[in-house]
Every structure is written in C-alpha cells, then in structure tokens.
Amino acid sequence: VQEPEEKKIALELLETEQAYVNRLHLLDQVFYTELMKEAKAGKTVPEEVVKMIFSNISSIYQFHAEFFLPELRKRMEDWNCNPRIGDVIQKLAPFLKMYGEYVKNFDKAVELITAWSEKSPPFQELIADIQKRKVCANLTLQHHMLEPVQRIPRYELLLKDYVRKLPPESPDRGDAEKALEMIFMVSKHSNAAIAEMERLQNLWVVYQRLGLEDDIVDPSNELIKEGPIQKVSTRNNSTSEKYLFLFNNMLLYCVPKVIQVGAEFQVHLRMDVDGMKVRELDDTQFPHTFLVSGKQRTLELQARSGEEMNAWIK
C-alpha cells in the first residue's frame, strides 16, 4: 500500500530532525565541550571566546534533543491511530525565537574562529583534530555551525508541503495551518535578524574603506547611496574626481586616495543631512550638475548622466 503523501513528509521531518539533533550534539557536546575544557585549562584561548563562538547552541541542542525530537517520534509511532504533527510543531514555534540570537552571532563566530586559529595554534590544532573524526564527515566546524541557521527555513518548507498534501478532511488541518503561520512569523523574525546583521556588516566595510574614526561608527547609520562624482570649480572652469557616501544622517564628501594603504578614501567634508538643500542647476557648460548646500558650505557637483543626477537628488 502506498503511504499517504502527508505521512511521507512527516517522516522526512522526523528523519531530518534526528540528523539535525546529531549535528547539534556534535556542536554542543563535542566541539563546545572539548574547546571549553581546553580553554579552562588555559591551553588554547580565553573561555569568553569559546562562549562567544558558540552563542546559545546548548539551549538549542537541549530543546531539540529533549523535547522536540522525542515528541515528534512519539507522534510518528502513533500515526496510524492518530495522524497529526501540527500540535507538536505549534509547541515548537515559540522556542525557535532562540535562533535569533544564534543567527545574529553567526558571522562574528566565524570571524572569531578564524582570528583565534591564527593567534593560537593549539586552538587550531584541537579544531583540526575534532574535524578529522568520522562524526564530522570531512566537514569544517564552520560548515556544521551553519546548520542551525538553515534549519528554520527547512521547517517552513516541509510544513508548507505537508499542509498542501493534507486531505481537506484531515483532523490535523487546523493545527497544521496554525503551526505554519507560527513558523512563518518566527522565520520572518530570524530573517530580520539576518538582514540587520548584513546591514551592520556592510556598514562596517564602508567605515573601513573610509578609514573612519569611531565617532562615525554608529550602528543606526544607514548607507543610502555611494559613487563617484565630479566637483565643478567655477573659478578655474574645471572638474575634479570626488566620491560621495550618502548616509541617512550625513553626506561624506571624499577624495579617492592615490596610494591605497588602508583606507580607499579621505573624508574632506561631512555635511549633515539635517537642513541640507539640493537643487538641479541649469549649466550649459557642465550638464547634469546639481547644488548641495549645507550649513557649512555649498558644493556644485556633476553627475555622469541625467539619470545619475536624478538618483542623487532623490
């Protein structure tokens, strides 16, 4: 007899959950535990570093190993007399908020592994030693650490599929739909955390290109547009190559550095967006020019095209 489609998906959920718990066990009980033991013995890196790398992986592991996996297994054992998983997944959803913290920390964790592997050969050796074990399946610690980041989208896909394949009269329909809705909300929450992390990452890269001091490094800044621009000098009728970074709160007027050591640009002027005025100029000699005037000074700038000028003005 052909198994019903929805049961196949529920079984796939159970199988992938078992594999996932094994992966979490490896991260928490093997990598984290052993690295922590060596750190405590003062042989590798500070304990704080190990904690920062693994974030809240222990809570995630415990939750899946001790609660979600056993409940799911029980559901599949009783499937023939009680075919449902929606209720268990509803219980799972609120706990998935734990992932926000892990996901937000992920990039930093990978950076820490790289940085401390260079600084501390014993740390690198211990990781390499664990990676050689059969349980690691020739994959790196970083690779295993990606698994929790990818798990919530996986639940979402499996559950969507499950709801699609459920017969209309299935006793699990109401619960499964509600569970999907809940997972969807959590996944949005986790994606927002990822997007925020990427935004900060990009911001940081821009600050490095500018060689900026800490006073500007404000995480609430948002880069809106950047690009080359010509500065028109009416005095000697010429233009010179400059570069603009427009943030939500300031415009940085920069000069590209000829010798690029460290930063790519030198900031010549910071103009507050607050109180700034922008208008198009009708200059026959220099087309596509616009005027940016701030409290301190006014710049006459020339874009490469009308479109580019409009994009800047906008």
TrEMBL record:
Molecular function (Gene Ontology), one example? zinc ion binding
UniProt KW Translocase keyword: no
In which broad location class does this protein mainly occur, judging by the first location in its UniProt entry?
cytoplasm
**Gene3D superfamilies, alphabetically?**
Dbl homology (DH) domain, Pleckstrin-homology domain (PH domain)/Phosphotyrosine-binding domain (PTB)
Where the record annotates domain PH, the positions are: 222-314
Question: Does the record's keyword annotation contain Metal-binding?
Answer: yes
Q: Where is the DH domain?
A: 5-193
Give the matching CDD domains.
RhoGEF
Instruction: Give GO cellular component annotations, separated by semicolons.
Output: cytoplasm; cytoskeleton
Give the subcellular location: Cytoplasm, Cytoskeleton
Give the GO biological process terms. cytoskeleton organization; filopodium assembly
Keywords linked to the UniProt accession:
Cytoplasm, Cytoskeleton, Metal-binding, Phosphoprotein, Repeat, Zinc, Zinc-finger
Q: Which domain of life is it from?
A: Eukaryota
Q: Which Pfam families match?
A: RhoGEF (PF00621), SOS1_NGEF_PH (PF22697)
Q: Which InterPro entries match?
A: DBL_dom_sf, DH_dom, FYVE_RhoGEF_PH, PH-like_dom_sf, PH_domain, SOS1_NGEF_PH
Protein's name in the database:
FGD2 protein
Q: What gene does this protein come from?
A: Fgd2_0
